[in-house]
Write a structure and sequence with these properties.
By secondary structure, the chain is α/β, with parallel strands linked by helices. Helices cover 33% and strands 13% of the residues.
């Protein structure tokens, strides 16, 4: 099991992409996860955005959480507010495939250099809004990143890329086509979203490419009716259990869940408008992890730990 947390600023769930207004007051609330993480030996991967890692008052807290949980600190690129900033003729968040590769490279370098004061050289990565395409993957290949977790199966992202037919378990992708296996040294670890039938993503992609149905209904069906996400922030406990059983019965080896640090404070996302909603989410997360460890043989790994199991 891989638990990843996008540790980021507030406001994104309200559609705010102001590059200068980037409040990060949610970060200390990560400590609320301590009880359940300690109880089950969860070793999360904390994927930090530029503005989080640049906020010096949180450095000691982040290193303490890393040491206390045996966690990993990785990088999370919010390309809309990571410098250098350049005005482009598109609405935010701009799809990565529309951003010049040299600008993506500069942003990635800014993000990685921001980790120097805390003595961390990230090996794991997630692209903001899961907007990982071949162009951004080529940028990753120029860095020390060894594992990426930016694909959301059964989803088509705004402006592309298309992950409808993405593989569920980790694999080494073809840099030119991230949905198929290839020879990249970067391990792709998709978040776990299980199609109701094993080849549903394949058939939906065929419908899309043949223009039999418009893309919007296909994407809506894949997201809302055709798949079960094993993501505690997205669905209820019964569906989480059903999807986990289904994933295991199909031979799934890795369960990768994620949520955002901002989901731990009231009002930062539509699903958690009040403190009571946040408490319910934390209770659901605890109950799911308790059920999982009591029902199956589970080992908690960080993203880079998982990469080591796949060889050099």
């Amino acid at each position: 099991m891989i638990v990843t947390i996008d540790v980021e600023e507030e406001g994104l769930f309200r559609g705010r992409y102001d590059p200068f207004d980037v409040p990060v007051s949610n970060v200390p609330v990560l400590s609320r996860l301590d009880r359940v993480f300690q109880e089950w030996g969860i070793r999360p991967t904390l994927l930090l955005t530029y503005h989080v890692v640049r906020f010096e008052p949180y450095h000691d807290l982040l290193i303490d959480l890393k040491n206390r949980w045996g966690a990993e600190i990785g990088a999370h690129l919010h390309h809309w507010n990571t410098p250098p900033l350049r005005v482009l003729p598109y609405s935010e968040p701009i799809p990565s495939e529309l951003i010049p590769e040299d600008l993506l490279t500069q942003k990635m370098n800014s993000l990685l250099e921001a980790f120097n004061p805390i003595g961390v050289s990230p090996l794991s990565f997630r692209m903001g809004r899961f907007n990982m395409g071949p162009k951004m993957f080529s940028v990753l290949e120029k860095t020390n990143i060894l594992v990426d977790s930016s694909l959301a199966p059964m989803r088509r992202q705004y402006g592309g890329p298309n992950h409808l037919n993405a593989q569920i378990d980790p694999y080494f992708p073809d840099p030119a086509n991230l949905l198929v296996s290839g020879s990249s040294p970067i391990l792709e670890v998709p978040i776990t979203i299980v199609p109701l039938t094993a080849r549903l993503g394949h058939w939906l992609e065929r419908l899309r490419t043949r223009s039999i149905f418009p893309e919007a209904p296909i994407s809506w069906f894949a997201m809302n009716l055709g798949s079960l996400p094993i993501q505690p922030a997205w669905t209820g406990l019964r569906r989480l259990k059903s999807a986990t059983y289904l994933h295991r019965e199909r031979g799934g080896q890795v369960l990768t869940i994620f949520f955002h640090s901002s989901e731990l404070i009231p009002g930062s996302c539509p699903q958690h408008p009040t403190a009571e909603h946040v408490d319910r989410f934390l209770d659901k997360l605890s109950r799911f992890l308790t059920w999982l460890h009591r029902s199956m043989a589970v080992e908690s790994l960080t993203l880079s730990d998982l990469r080591k199991t796949y060889g050099p």
